[in-house]
Amino acid sequence: xxxxWVFLFEEVNEVEKERGSWNxxxxxxxxxxxxxxxxxxxxxxxxxxxxISTEACNEYYKVNEKFPEGMWDQTMVALKHIExxxxxxxxxxxxxxxxSCRSGAAQSMPGMMDTVLNIGLNxxxxxxxxxxxxxxxxxxxSYRRLVQGYACIVLGLKxxxxxxxxxxxKKEKNMKFDNELTAEDWKVMTEKFKxxxxxxxxEFPQDPIEQIRLSIHAVFAxxxxxxxKVYRKKANIPDDLGTAVNIVTMVFGNMxxxxxxxxxxxxxxxxxxxxxxxxxxxxxxxxxxVVAGIRNTDPIVSLETKIPEAYKKxxxxxxxxxxxxxxMQDIEFTVERGVLYxxxxxxxxxxxxAKVKIAVDLVEEGLITKEKAILRVxxxxxxxxxxxxxxxxxQEEARKSGKLFAKGVAASPGAAVGRIYFEADTCxxxxxxxxQDVIMVxxxxxxxxVHGMLVSKGIFTNQGGATSHAAVVxxxxxxxCVVGASATIIDQENKTVRVGDILLKEGDWVSVDGTTGxxxxxxxETIKPDLTKQVELTKLLSWADExxxxxxxxxxxxxPSKGLQVWANADYPADAKRARMFGxxxxxxxxxxHMFLGDRSLILRKFILAKEEKxxxxxxxxxxxxxTKDFEELFVEMTGLPVIVRLIDPPLHEFLPxxxxxxxxxxxxxxxxxxxxxxxxxxTNVKEMHESNPMLGLRGVRLSIVKPELVQMQIxxxxxxxxxxxxxxxxxxxxxxxxLVSHIAELKQIQPELEKVAAEVLKKYELDIKYKFGTMIETxxxxxTGGEIAHLAEFFSFGTNDLTQMxxxxxxxxxxxxxxxxxxxxxxxxxxxxxxxxxDGVGKLIRxxxxxxxxxxxxxxxxxxxxxxxxPRSIKxxxxxxxxxxxxxxxxxxxxxxSACHALLK
Amino acid sequence: xxxxWVFLFEEVNEVEKERGSWNxxxxxxxxxxxxxxxxxxxxxxxxxxxxISTEACNEYYKVNEKFPEGMWDQTMVALKHIExxxxxxxxxxxxxxxxSCRSGAAQSMPGMMDTVLNIGLNxxxxxxxxxxxxxxxxxxxSYRRLVQGYACIVLGLKxxxxxxxxxxxKKEKNMKFDNELTAEDWKVMTEKFKxxxxxxxxEFPQDPIEQIRLSIHAVFAxxxxxxxKVYRKKANIPDDLGTAVNIVTMVFGNMxxxxxxxxxxxxxxxxxxxxxxxxxxxxxxxxxxVVAGIRNTDPIVSLETKIPEAYKKxxxxxxxxxxxxxxMQDIEFTVERGVLYxxxxxxxxxxxxAKVKIAVDLVEEGLITKEKAILRVxxxxxxxxxxxxxxxxxQEEARKSGKLFAKGVAASPGAAVGRIYFEADTCxxxxxxxxQDVIMVxxxxxxxxVHGMLVSKGIFTNQGGATSHAAVVxxxxxxxCVVGASATIIDQENKTVRVGDILLKEGDWVSVDGTTGxxxxxxxETIKPDLTKQVELTKLLSWADExxxxxxxxxxxxxPSKGLQVWANADYPADAKRARMFGxxxxxxxxxxHMFLGDRSLILRKFILAKEEKxxxxxxxxxxxxxTKDFEELFVEMTGLPVIVRLIDPPLHEFLPxxxxxxxxxxxxxxxxxxxxxxxxxxTNVKEMHESNPMLGLRGVRLSIVKPELVQMQIxxxxxxxxxxxxxxxxxxxxxxxxLVSHIAELKQIQPELEKVAAEVLKKYELDIKYKFGTMIETxxxxxTGGEIAHLAEFFSFGTNDLTQMxxxxxxxxxxxxxxxxxxxxxxxxxxxxxxxxxDGVGKLIRxxxxxxxxxxxxxxxxxxxxxxxxPRSIKxxxxxxxxxxxxxxxxxxxxxxSACHALLK
Lengths: 906, 906
Description:
homodimer; eight-stranded parallel beta barrel; alpha/beta; Glucose Oxidase, domain 1; ATP binding (chains A, B); TIM Barrel
């Protein structure tokens, strides 16, 4: 006996039992077929039909595009079954059976594969249908559709060879829309269409069985069309899924104005998620007419009065379907002379907002578990909800009208509109003094620019990648940002930015889309979601936290005792407040150098350039007073939660002007005979501090060892601040993090010295505050020697940006707008390792380090504070490796909380 | 019974048997005691004596600087034994026994510890000695020496309180040398010295036993003197070795002009290694007088006629000693009234040259094995033999007279004298046109400078470390070089270099010592060893190769089938020839970019700046013709041996002017209103290509992927060259190495493409040439994923410079003259990881990679081609890990060959 390839709708429960799961049924019968069959088995009115399985499709390709053995016979048997069920017969001259032949893969590939309608019509059955329906116009319209569809899909002719003559005919007859054509017109067109097929050397078969056979072939073939293959590659759908073929009895919504019609409906509002039927109905029409927008549709409620019984039934059945599938359904249906038929049901697409609301509502309606609800919302959905966006329509128009100025790396999502300015000071001034909306434009940004960035609505840069300074800071503060827009030519001097012929000057309006990486040379309309009102999101995330804390209770070697927590990268009290509001369980990274920005950079500059010890000490004292206050407020905001303070990390020359700018300036002065001693002196200093590869240079712990006075001041400030907070009744939990360690020897050199300073401050205040000293793991060597480093370090935090940089040997600043972009274009690398953690290489280091670190110091806290801390796949990795927390920018906390829970549930 | 602390010389063979090895005896009795005792046991004439063990010394410190229990009693018994043997008696009024009390540790610490001579003299025994010797002058001279020595060593008084009165006395008496003093004079001085002791509140004991007791205390105490501790720390001698104390009967070479005297002799020439007795003799003198140079000594052969029996015996016995110790001996001896006494024998210090010759000679004399000979020569010795050096005396004088201009990193050993020039072109011109000796001075060097470097005698730079471009190139070509001389202020524009007040101008003479890192502002005398005449070195190294090939036959998992080979880093045919002469078994690294220097850089520049495809193709064709010829000659030179050709590695901007220079130039032109379109255009290009961290930027395989045409040209040239060589009857073995791979995907992208090019060339010539494609492992990620990478790569070569750089996150260019230098000063790191491989971190990666690589591809060739390839400890590591070869610059090959053998033997 040959294998079973063909399944009647009625057989679905049996199949489900046999295959063991609904998912297996969907894999076998495709989404459309499985759902049609399920509806039938639930007693819902579905036109009789059957499904040829995806296995048949795969076998078809295995045996050189022939029907697998037994398939055609089984098809004929199934067809006979339909004939019996409907009392109609294929090719019958009195009561002919018409069917559709529809593709349907397990995963939805909208518009990618083919469907042939009205199969069974020929010159003879058309006459029978006219007699039966008494509607000549309907029959010829259907017939010409079959000829046209068959010709295009089965015979491979082009649609325009039919559409063009039709258009010409309408013009000739002075008609505009298809519904103006009469029965006679369609009859003429049918003949014309048949002739066109012959003229193109093809044949439209009059034999309905032949029509069916060749349509099945065509649907199978459509699985391997170029467009389908491309789509699958992009959507990550395996090529060996195959498509099923559904043969379904035709029903007709175009059998009259009063009691026939066709509709689509969602069981909830797909835009808002509101629990209310949402759909459209078109009287006297066939399925695709609704979508095609040929006439204005009626709201679905209009059925209530016009065909009340069908409406009532539809309401009941659609609710049953939603309950059965425990998900909002997207339903296609037809009413044929008052009889309701369901043609399709599937989980409905919806906006992020609706997704969250529906998931939460379904939990509260008792239909699904919290876990299921959480899994139905993706991190991208949360991302979308957190940032303002452009009105899609106006954005599309701008694209079409040539307003798209440049594209770069989408570095920080969201939409921003403002006037461009080229310098941080100017940006600040324009905002503070003139209350302008500002977009900052820079070749790249430096810490010196941060005061300008913070007040800007958006940022774009010519250089840098997704983890460049601009990108990191922008994400940190939720400022929409596009970096590495390399087509732009920025003239800082003349304050212009140019792409081709378009020249923008200071003060010109642009719109920056940090979600798509686009920059528009115009003002676009934005939509700003109100975060505080996202009640459902808040609820969903609190469930995620609960599950993480509960499900996360894992035991086993080197596993932490709690699930993955989400901490925040936050440098200022305001940041910390926001982080806490967004649900952070601690600060995983407070970058103390960010406290040296704005006016304070001048004090730091004094320290750097000081020639005498006294000058140096004065500068330090000034900085200490400021930092102490910063820390005090930070500890107040984070009372009861750990705050990891990272000692100064960047090279000091970042706080001075850039070498090339200075050389340009000084050379110009010199050539003009102007002597500027300060500038010359500054140049000498900057030259002296210049490094070939600053990323691998004098920064982090190296700086601490070479210039210990700076970090000693910082430690004093941290503990002074903590003591002040404690005296005010708060509970500070300071944890000191030493950056860029490569060798335990570096910690040995500096840590005891700093611990001494801390102890002295606490002694002075006679206060007992718990604290820790730990280190970042950001060089491969640190990761390789984690066991050794854990002798001194009480916690680890992976700085995955630097770690990725050094493990790959890719300078993130250069690579992301350079060869790495090319790699991604060429498909050399499947993804940007600065975006999602490279689990094979960098991940291997992390795993080694976690194992060895926890062997030395069981249960130690280990986290990630690089940019990856807010990226879902990296969070999954962090969870799998058994980290204690991920730390990310406050705005990414909701995404991270969801991802952390996903990591546990998946 | 108390422990045995005191050992008679006669007991030595028993001790050796009991302790199991000669080394254990030396540890117990110290070098001097053990050798004296061994001589005695061999029947060689040694004054009777005994040794108090080093264990006694250690116990002495354990029990708070008291003699350990039983030690003093044992000493008295041993003394009695000597008395019996000599027939003399301590303190005897007729025939008194005089002894010396000498320190002697297991490891020689010359001049660090104390010795007291003539113990046993007092007012009474002096008279007895006068009667016995009939030589009053000798006795009073000896007595005053005892008083003086005892006072200084035991009582802690200062030498000058005795020397000053002696000088005054001589002045008063109008005498110049000590030997002018009469018996009466010495009598007066003896009394004076005794009075000085009392005047300083101390006491010279008349009791000889008390003299012995306190002298032993003093010798023990000298073990822990400050200077001894400092010396031990520097020489890496453990503090718990302790010193032995030797009590030896005094013999006197100052008992007459004819038949008494004292001498020192080496059994071979310590300077040249020649097999001939080499020494001096001083008639009528005591030991230290020879060294003190009080009178001119006679050559040792003068003994032959004057005291023929003693001479004959000395010749016989000294040869016996050399044979017994199988090593050149350094002997002290005394002839007392015609009787020869050996006072000391030890392995003699010698020059590197002598060391090699003696080791080889001893093998050929059948005294030692080849292995032993090899182990007796250190890599530093070989290094010394390979480079010209300054005359030490003139160098020391220059230091003293303030001619030392600056110090930097000793980057490439050897001595160079020449006139300074600041630009590569000028250097080349001065050499080629004016035949000058040139020292190149640069802030740092770039590939563009190489033509100038190659013609220079020496190089010094202001920036960079031991693996900077300047250092690497210099070592490669054996050019003495000092880098990172950061105290220098180089003014390229005015062509001056300044340190403090010393200003050197173009054309001034300097001397560069690449071995010490010193730069002198003067001409120093140099000594140039003739390499081709180093017959013994050549022989020794051939033995090393033999042993490596034989002893290296190791089996076991992931071990190569042969011992560690030494290959060369060589870029040109002349290089290859030299490498082969020095014993290279292949070329491990041919840096093809070095073929783009000089005039050719202009062609490459055309390629880089080309705007049209045709320009680009023309430049490529020009380069290809040149490279093909280069490769052909390289394969000819290396016929039958593998040549690993690395595809272009550095970023292309290295072939253009530096950004800062250009900005300075263009800004100046602009300020002066001069429009230079070419320069402006060049600046735009250079700006575009600028990278923040070029070390982590667009280079290596990344460049190959982004600009495949360049490496395709290179592959064509390699295989065209190989085919040409093959046609001429040579046997080319090309191996292509792809640099800077981080991810197998990069190899997947480029390697098949290049293999295709290679196959096409071979097909064109219809030749069958074996070749391989492999990769450098220089990023941590490559090392971490070695198993994966070995799927495609047929061999690995660790680029340990970059690997160290990225594993530590230390930019070598910045670190070595910056914080890393500070780390080494502070002792944070014990050594520079760019110099000697970091076995814990970088080594861990290498081990992982070797294991995983060879698991995937058993027996694959794996080598090191970084700078570490020529460093002995790194070579040891490479051997231990089971690498196939190390590749180093031709001039380091001899060192590496020796080290590779040491690695196996140690």
